Amino acid sequence: MSALNRQRALLDFTVAALARRRIKNLALVAVFATVVFLLASAMFFASSLRREAEATLAGAPDLIVQNLSLGRQAMIDAADLPKIAAIRGVATAEGRLWGYYYDRISGANYTVMVPSAADLVPPPGEVIVGEAVPRVRDFKWQGTPLFLSRHEGDLVRFDIARTLGSDVALISADLVLMNEVDFRSFFNVPAGKFTDLAVTVRNPRELSTVVEKASAALPDARFVTREDIARTYQKLFDWREGVMVALAFVAMLAFAIFAAEKATGLSAEEAREIGILKAIGWDTRDVIAMKLWEGGLVSGGAFLLGTVIAYAHVFWAGAPLFASVLKGWAVIYPDFRLTPAIDALQLGTLLLLTTLPYAAATVVPVWRTAAADPDAVMR
Amino acid sequence: MIFHTPILTLLLVSALAALVALWSAGFGLSVLRRWDLASCSRGQLMMERRTELVSTLFAMVMAAEAAALSLFIFNADRMAALFVGAMCAVGTLNVNGYGFPALYAQIATFFAAAVWLVLDHVDRLGRDYPLTRAKYAAVLAIAPLVLLSGGLQLAYFLNLRTDVITSCCSKLFTPANAGISDEMAGVDPATALWALGIAGGLVAATGIRALRSGRGHGLFALAGAGYFGAALVAMVSTIALYLYENPNHHCPFCILKPDYGYIGYAFYLPLFGATALALGLGAASPFAARASLRAPLPAVMRRLTLWALAGFAAYGLVTVWVILRSHLILFG
User: Fold this and answer.
1) Which residues of chain A have a CB within 8 Å of the CB of B49?
2) Do B287 and B310 reside in the same domain of the chain?
3) Which pLDDT score is estimated for B270?
C-alpha cells in the first residue's frame, strides 16, 4: 500500500472513530474553539485597529513643529513659520490653532480647532461639530445652540452650522471646529501665536534632512514626524494585543493540560478498540499515526471554528468582549466599524500558537497508549 | 518588545524545540551506549518503544521549526515599520547584533531538521531500525544547534529597542558596507547567471543519474548545495535587479513584501525545500545497502529526488520568468 493510500485509510478510520464518540469529541472541539476564539479575536481586533490608525494618519502632515518651554509644549511664534517654509524641500508650512476644552456638563473633552480647509471654516458665532458632541450633550432638536462655559458664570453661545458625518467618526467624533477669530477670543490666544506648525515636504525621503535643517533653525522646538506617530500607535496596539494574547494563552495552556489529562485516561471503549487494533496486526506506529490524525482533525476543526467565530465577533459584532481593553476608553468614543485586516502572518501565528501546545501535550499520552501491549490495554 | 504575538509564538516554538532536543539528546546518548537489537532485555524493549515517542516528538518539533523560519522572516519584514531606518526584514534584523546570527542559526536548524526528518523517514521503512544509531548521533549534533538558535532568538528579541536607528537594505548591500553581502552584490551579473545555469545543469545531470541508476545521491546533494549557493548569489547580484527594475537595489528580503506580490516566496520555498531534500538524500544514501532497506528505499529515494528536482526547476523557471517580464536591460 502506498504511503498516501495508507494515510487515506488511516484518515478514513479516524473519522469513523471520531463519529462513534460524537458528543465527547464535539465537546472537546467546542472548548478548544473557545480558546482559539479568544486568541483570534484579540489578534484580529488589534490588527484592524493598526490598519485604522494607518489609514487615519495617511492624511496627517509629514511633520509637526512644536515649541517647548520648560520641557512642555507651549504656543509657537508666527515668526518661526517663514524659517521653516524657507527650507528647501518644504512644500507647505502653516500655523495650526487647536486645543482641548473640558465640558463640565458632559464630563468629556472636546478637541477645538481652526480648520485649514476653507469649506470647513464656519461663519462667526457658529461651529461645526463631530457626531458625538450633540449625542453627549443630548440635543433633542435641530438647531439647538452649543453653550460652552470656560469657568463659573461664563457662557458662550455658538450655533451649530452643521454636524460632521459618522463616516469620519474615528478622527472627528469629539471635534468642534471654529473660525480663527472665535478661537482666539474663546481661548484668549494672542495674534501671532499658534499651537504648532504643520509642514508637508515634497519628497518624503528628504524628511530627515528637513528635520535636521529645521532643528538648526529652531533649536528649542520639538519635531514630530508622521512616521513617529504611526510607530507609536503600532507599538501601543502591538503591546496591548501581546498582553491580551499572553493572557488568553494561559487559557490555551489550561486547555492543553486538560487535553493531556483526557488523552491519558482512555475510556474502556477506546482502550478496547486500541487493544483489538493491535491484536489484529496494527503496530505502534499505526496507532500513533491514527491518534495524530485524531488530534489533527480536532485541532483543525477547532481552529477553523474559533477563527470564523472570532471573525464574526470582531468584524460584524464590533468585538464587544475586547473593545474596551484594546481601544482605550473615553467619555466620547466614536462608533466605527472595523475593516477586516487579516493576513497569512496572523493566521500562521495563530495556527502555531494553538495547535502546537495541544499536539505537544497529547503526544506522550498517545504514545503511552499506542506502545502498551494489547492484552494490557484491554485488561 | 516581547509582548508581540509572533514573537511570543516564535519563543514558544523555540522553548518547546529546546526541551524536546535536550530530552532527545539524553535519550540519544543511551541509545548510542546501550542499543543492541539482538538483546531481548526489558531495557532494550523499552528503548525500542521509546524511539517511537522520540521520533514523533522530534519530527513534530522540527516541522514546527521549519514553519517558525518562515514566520521569523515574515515577522521581521512586518516589524520594519517599528524601527527608524528599517524598510524591510534587513533593517529589523540589523537592530541589534543577534538578528542575523539568529536567522543563520534558524536556517542551519531548518536544514539539519530536514536531514533528520529524511533519515527518520528512511529508518521507518526498515523493520529492524536500520538507521537508529545514525539518527540519534544526528540528534546529538542537532540539539546544540537548536539550543543555540533558541538562545540567539531570545537574545535578539530581548534586545529589540525601538529607539535604535537601524540601517536599511540599501546600505547593507553596497561597497560602503564591506562583508559577504557586499561581495555577493558585487558579482558580475553575467557571471552569476552563468554560475546558476551551470549549477542547474549539474543538479539536473546528477539528479537524472540518481533517478536512472538509483545511485549517486551524495553527488546530487553536493550539486544541490552548490545550486543553493549559486542561487543566493544570483538573487543578490542579478535577479533582484530585474525584479525591482533598478540596477542598484540588491536586497533579497524586499521581494518578500506585498509590494512585489510576495514573489520571494515563489523563489525561496522551492529552493529551501529542494536543497533540504537533496541534503537529506545525501545523508540517507550511505544506508541504501542495508538489507532491510533494499526493497523499500529505492522508490522513496526516487520520489524525493523527483521532488527536489522539481523544486530546483521551479526556482530556475521563476528566475527566467522574472527576467523576461522585467523592463530592466542589463545586457546588450
Assistant:
1) 284, 371
2) yes
3) 96
**Closest by alpha carbon to A220, among A63, A62, A69, A64?**
A69
CB-nearest partner of B9 from A231, A238, A349: A349
Kindly tell me if the per-residue pLDDT of A363 is higher than 90.
no
* A184 DSSP 8-state letter: H
Question: pLDDT at residue B237 above 80?
Answer: yes
Q: Name all domains of chain A by residue range, CATH numbers in brackets.
A: 3-57+232-378 (no CATH), 98-188 (2.40.40)
Amino acid code (one letter) for A221:
A
Contact flag A292-B56 (C-beta cutoff 8 Å): yes
CB contact under 8 Å between A352 and B84, yes or no, is no
- How many interface pairs between A and B have CB atoms less than 8 angstroms apart? 88
Which chain A positions have a beta carbon within 8 Å of B5's beta carbon? 43, 238, 241-242, 245, 346, 349, 353
Query: B149 and B18 in one domain?
Result: yes
In 3-state terms, what secondary structure has residue B96?
coil
Report pTM.
Answer: 0.84
ipTM of this complex > 0.90?
Answer: no
As a whole number, mean pLDDT of residues B141-153 equals 95
**pLDDT mean over B230-251:** 92
pLDDT band at A379 (very low <50, low <70, confident <90, very high): low
> How many Cβ atoms sit within 10 Å of the Cβ of residue A260?
19
Q: Which residues of A touch B67 (CB under 8 A)?
A: 348, 352
Closest Cβ–Cβ partner in B13, B52, B75 for A371:
B52
Of B2, B56, B64, the CB nearest to A363: B56
B231 to chain A, closest Cα gap in Å: 26
pLDDT at position A144 over 80: yes
Domain that holds residue B268: 169-332
Q: Lowest-confidence range among A190-199, B31-40, B68-77? A: B31-40
Lowest-confidence segment of A81-90, A216-225, A369-378, B38-47 by average pLDDT: A369-378
Q: How far apart are CA B332 and CA B329, in angstroms?
A: 7
Distance CA B174, CA B168 (A): 11
d(CA A47, CA B124): 44
Q: Does B211 touch chain A (CB under 8 A)?
A: no
The C-alpha cell at B146 is: 537548536
Same domain? For B210 and B280 the reply is: yes
Residue A345 neighbours by CB distance under 10 Å: 18
Q: How far is A305 from chain B (nearest CA, A)?
A: 21
Q: What is the pLDDT of residue A332?
A: 59
| Interface contact B64, partner A, CB < 8 A | yes
d(CA B256, CA B169): 13
Q: Cβ A243–B70 below 8 Å, yes or no?
A: no
